[in-house]
Amino acid sequence: MIHTAGQLAVRTAARPLGWLMIAVMLASCDVFSAREPEPPASEGGTFLQPDTPEQVIENILSAVEEMNAPNYGRSLAADLMFTPTAAALGQDPSTWTSWSKAEEERYFSTAAAAAQLSTGHRLVLTDPSVSVITDDRFQYDATYTLTINHSRPEVPTGAQGRLIWIIVQGDDGLWSLSEWTDRELGGAVSWSDLKAAFSR
Fold it and tell me: What is the mean pLDDT of the chain?
């Protein structure tokens, strides 16, 4: 069940201040707009302990900007499920029949290797819609623009579409991306298309 805004206000009133701050930050949407890349906090890149759904999204944004494959993988649930766009599924159904966290990490590692000599990578999320489904299940729906400046001339460097992320809280209290649905935006190259290209 998706809570209404009024129900969410009642539910968050009894929660620690941190949860309320998350709701305010998500409502403002500023955190998901275009931003200047931050320098890595250490050799391991920029990664926040995912105590909130918002921090999972921040970590994915940072992982793309830094093309940091380990941190990208740390943001994914072990049982990640990915649903590609209808066009990508129709073009090569076999690519997606066994897509899992392992395939997701493999594609991103391949893309990161092709992009290691470049900068300017960026994931911009706009027009977001946020829903608290249950206490440990959170839905984030947004339009994305992805730029990966890589060295493979046969693969586009940009993608656009609409994503739906289901972010869940594990038994350890930490959050991760569990379900991902990709939707086409007009005739633009989608994230699914890039995943398929880098998985070959």
Answer: 85
- The predicted-structure confidence for 60-71, as pLDDT tens digits, reads as follows 999 999 999 999
Helix (H, G, I), strand (E, B) or coil at 122: strand
Residues with Cβ within 8 Å of 151's Cβ and at least 6 positions away in sequence, in order, are 114, 115, 117, 118
Quote the CA–CA distance of 151 and 108 in Å, as a whole number.
14
CA 134: distance to chain centroid? Answer: 20
Sign of CA dihedral 188, 162, 88, 86: negative
CATH 3.10.450.50 at 5-35+48-199, yes or no: yes
pLDDT band at residue 30, thresholds of 50, 70 and 90?
A: very low
Distance in angstroms (rounded) separating the CA atoms of residues 135 and 102: 27
